[in-house]
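Dear Dr. K.,

Following up on our conversation at the group meeting, I've run the structure prediction for Transcriptional regulator from Crocosphaera watsonii WH 0402. I'm pasting the input sequence below exactly as I used it, so you can double-check it against your construct before we proceed with anything downstream. Let me know if the numbering doesn't match what you have in your notebook.
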Amino acid sequence: MAKMTTSKYPIKATFLKNEEICSLPPAALAMVADFFKVLSEMSRLQIICSLKNGGKNVSEIIEITELGQANVSKHLKVLTQAGIVTRTQEGVNVFYAIANPLVFLYVILFVILSLHN
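The predicted structure tokens came back this morning:
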């Protein structure tokens, strides 16, 4: 079975068989559902995509996504709390970056699945 850790999303799915995924405890499935909820918002996907080439500050993210400052800040907070984005303060500047580049694989899979239907 998958290795369990103490992070917010403790399932390390290096390899899970279908029957193992379906037999995960409800708490683990709830964490997976929460992760997908975070990724299921268009503005958050835009922000994630804006970070594909490295860390950016809020102003740069706003320029790339064309979203409002309050909206970007709200979604960055959600993405940071979910562990998808990291927040680093350098002097007066705050930079956001993707915590784990595997998140882009999820986005690609979502695109493929949505186009398939």
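Two things stood out to me. Confidence is low (pLDDT under 50) at residues 1-7. The domain at 41-117 is CATH 1.10.10.10 (Arc Repressor Mutant, subunit A).

Best regards,
J.T.
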